[in-house]
Structure formats: structure tokens, C-alpha cells
Q: What sequence folds into this?
């Protein structure tokens, strides 16, 4: 695993990310990667 990076996000964004967790221990990295994959998959379907 690479060294984690610190990013700045608004509190509301963090709250929304927490709501997108599949499991209680899901990480923000997992959430963001899933969202990016879904966006890429959707874009490639067009």
C-alpha cells in the first residue's frame, strides 16, 4: 500500500461518503475507487 495522502473535503462531502459505505469498515479509498470505476464503466457504455 502506498503512503496515504491527505485531501481536504467539506464536512458535508465526508458525510455523503460515509453514507456510500457498503460495509461499516469501508474506507474512503474503497468508496472513491468504486465511484470512479462506476463512472468509467458508464462512460465506456456510451
A:
Amino acid at each position: 500500500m502506498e503512503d496515504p495522502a491527505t485531501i481536504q473535503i467539506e464536512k458535508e462531502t465526508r458525510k455523503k461518503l460515509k453514507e456510500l459505505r457498503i460495509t461499516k469498515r469501508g474506507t474512503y479509498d474503497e468508496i472513491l475507487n468504486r465511484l470512479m470505476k462506476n463512472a468509467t464503466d458508464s462512460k465506456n457504455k456510451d
